[in-house]
Amino acid sequence: MKRRNLIILVIVVVLLLAVGVFFLLSRKTTPQTSGVPTFPQGSGAQAPGGGTGGAGGYGSVSNFVPGSGAPLPRLYQLHTTPVAGAGFYETGSGSSLSVSARYMERSLGNIFETPLNTFAETRISNETHPQVAEALWGNKGNSVIFRYLDSQTDGLIKSHIINLGTSATPITISTSTESVQPSFLKTEEVFLPDYIPFASTAGDNSNTLFYLKDTGGPILGFVTDFKNSSAINIFSSPFTEWLPQFPNKNLVTLNTKPSADVPGDMFFLNPKTKAVTKILGDINGLTTLTNTDGKYVLYSGTQVGVPQLSVYDTTKKTSNQISLQTLPEKCVWSTMQKTVVYCAVPQNIPTGTYPDQWYQGVISFSDSLWRIDVATLNVTPIMVPGAYGAPAMDMTNLLLSSNDAYLLFVDKITSTPWVYRLIDTPQTVSSSNTTTPTILPSAITPDMQKIR
Questions:
Q1: pLDDT score of 155
Q2: Which residues neighbour 267 within 8 Å (Cβ) at sequence distance 6 or greater?
Q3: What average pLDDT does the structure give for the chain?
C-alpha cells in the first residue's frame, strides 16, 4: 500500500514539473533594456538624453541621415548637445538664397554651421571658450556675442564678440591612422566692457548692438557696432532692473524685469534723440516682443495665474487680447509680413507663478506652433512636435529666416537647436534652396484645437 502511494506521489510531482517547464518555455518574455525606456515614435514623450544623434536624432520618424539623398525632414534636431544660442547665416537672395544655421556650443564654445538644404553639419571655428552661458547672433550671422561667468574673478560676467570671416584656414590634425586638414573660418575677437547684465543685437540684422552696463550707480545703455569701435551712451537710469530688446537700429525697447505679483512697464528708446517713451504699464508679469518696425507690441500679463497674450498697436494706441495663452519670449515676428507672428503655445499650462517659475526652470512646457495675424486676430495651428516623432519641447529663442521658410528655435529642456521648415513642398538635397515658401497648416492633431 505504501509502495502504491509513493508511485502516485512521484507521478504527480513529475506532472507538475512538466507543466511548469512547458509554461516557462511557452511564455513570451520582455527584452531587458537596462532600465532605459525606449522612445515610441510619434508619442511626443520625452526620451532620456534628449536625442539619438545628430544624423536624424528625433528630427523625423524616418531618421534622416545627411548625405543619404533622402528627402529632408521638416523638423530636425541640428545638434545633440546644449548650445548657448543659434542664428541664421544667409547668402544670395531671391531664388538663389542659401540659408544655414549657426550655433555655439555651451561646453567648449565651438561654433558649428549647418546648411538647411543638406543638414550636413560642419565645425567652423577653431577657438575654445569653455562654459558659454549665452550666445547672441547678429550682423546677418557673421557675428556673435558670447557671455560667460569668469570663475577667476568671482563670477564676473564677461562679454566678448567673435566676428567670423569668409575665408578658411586649413589646420592639419594628426590621428592614429592619417592626417586631415579641416578648414576653419578666420575669426576676430573683440572685448566688451565688464559688468554687462544684458545685451541685444539688432533685429533688422544691421551691424549694431545694444548693451546695458552696471556702474554700481545708475545703469547705462550703449549702442555700438560689432567691432565696438564707436560705443555711444544713449541711456541712463537709477533703476537697474531692465530687459532690453533691439527691434531695429532706430529703436530699443526696455522692459522692467517681470514678476507675477509686480506691475511692469515697457518703454521705447530712440537711439538718435535718446528720448524715452512709455508704451505699456501697470501690468503684472509684463513681458513684450516688438516687431521690427515698432508698430505692434506682442505682450503678456499674468491673469488668473496664467500668461494671457495680447497685442498693442502703437499707432492707434489700442490693445486686443489674443485667444492663446503663452509668453512673447516664445514668439517671433514674421520677416515678410509685418502683422504675422509665430508662437510656441503650451498644450497645457501647469499651475504655477508666471513668468517667474518658467524663467527659473521650475516649470517646463510641451508646446505646439501657431501662426497669429494681429491685424485680424486669427490664429492658425501649424505644428506639434510629436507628430514628427519628436519629444515634448519647450520652444524658445525663435527665429525666422529672411524668406519665412525656416523657423529656428532652441528646446529649453535640452538646450539643443532645432529647425522646422514652414514651406509645404518636400525638400531634397540640392545646391541651393529655390523653393518659394507656401505656409500651410501641417502636422495638426485634434487636441491642438482645444488650446484656443
A1: 76
A2: 253, 254, 255, 276, 277, 278, 279
A3: 82
- Return d(Cα 268, Cα 290) in angstroms, integer: 10
Write the CA distances from 176 to 179, 182, 184, integer angstroms: 8, 16, 22
Report field, pTM of the whole predicted structure over 0.85:
no
- The DSSP letter of residue 7 is H
Domain residues of the chain, as ranges? 233-383
pLDDT digits (tens, 9 = 90+) for 237-290: 999 999 999 999 999 999 999 999 999 999 999 999 999 999 999 999 999 999
Which string of DSSP letters, residue by residue, matches 74-136?
SEEE--SS-EEEEEEEEES-GGG-EEEEEEEETTT--EEEEETTT---EE-------S--EEE
Alpha-carbon radius of gyration of the chain? 27
Task: State the residue for C-alpha cell 528720448.
Answer: 275
Q: Name residue, grid cell 538664397.
A: 97
What are the phi and psi torsion angles at 17 (to 5°)?
-65, -40
d(CA 194, CA 159): 7
Phi first, then psi, for residue 13 (nearest 5°) are: -60, -45
Cα–Cα distance, 260 to 292 (Å, whole number): 27
Rounded Cα distance between 76 and 42, Å, is 14
Closest residue by Cα to residue 199 from 243, 157, 169, 240: 243
Strands, E, within 172-321: which ranges? Answer: 173-174, 179-180, 183-191, 199-201, 209-214, 219-224, 232-237, 242-248, 251-256, 263-269, 276-284, 287-290, 296-303, 306-313, 318-321
C-alpha cell at 290: 516688438
Q: Which CATH class is domain 233-383?
A: mainly beta
262 to each of 238, 280, 284, how far by Cα in Å? Answer: 19, 14, 5
Name which residue leads in pLDDT, 368 or 305.
368
